[in-house]
Amino acid sequence: MAGSRITLMVPREPLEKIIGWPDLHGRVLPRAAPMTRLLRSLIEGLYSTAGELTEAEASGVRENLLFLLRGGLTGRQNNPLEDLPISQPVRSRILDYINENLTDPLLSPQSILQRFRVSRSHLYRAFEADGGIARIIREKRLDRAYRFLLTQPGKPISFKEAAYHCGFRNGTQFNKAFRERFDMSPKDVQLIGASHVPADPIDFSYQEHISKVARSSLVQSQSEKAGHFDIETRQLVRA
């Protein structure tokens, strides 16, 4: 097939999903690499038999093709993809990945490095303004725990159970981190109840909810003090 070219079009979404990186423009696979030779053989075979494959067979071939392509792009020891900075779309996908896996205790910066095949320095740099990737995971888990406790009023839930529900391995560490973030214990939050909690957690502002609770407590305290003052005044008048 010297002098000829076969163009293979692969949908972007499944390619990004299996490789974990959107910007592959200009990438060239080493011609002599074993995975490249296997990939070439598959593409040539697909070219000659594509019209004879059933839909199920074509789907199976596509999966194998993506697998080989991933091996060719990421199988080398020095992965050039790891040298590229993290783009905004990939950053968004990493955040989505974190949100979808908060209950998994194995979710960590290391698991993200393996999933998206980026360098540690680029991952940390991309989330440096947010306090780091580890902090993002921890605070998202704590926010999830806060909302979980709000929606379980009157139920005997230990902080260990809440910790497990939100991906924490250690109940003591969870309790300490929870207090540091919200300035109250998990038990205190559960006593607040589920007032003003929307169905969609995306629309829920934890800090705003805490502010409302603080204002409510302040108003109640002032009201109680005013009541006591009024009673004392009446008693003086009667005397």
TrEMBL record:
SMART domains noted in UniProt: HTH_ARAC
HTH araC/xylS-type domain span: 92-192
Pfam families: HTH_18
Gene Ontology molecular functions: DNA-binding transcription factor activity; sequence-specific DNA binding
Entry keyword set: DNA-binding, Transcription, Transcription regulation
PROSITE patterns to which the protein is assigned, alphabetical: HTH_ARAC_FAMILY_2
Phosphoprotein found in the keyword field: no
Keyword Transport: no
Protein name as annotated: AraC-like DNA-binding protein
Organism the protein comes from: Brucella daejeonensis
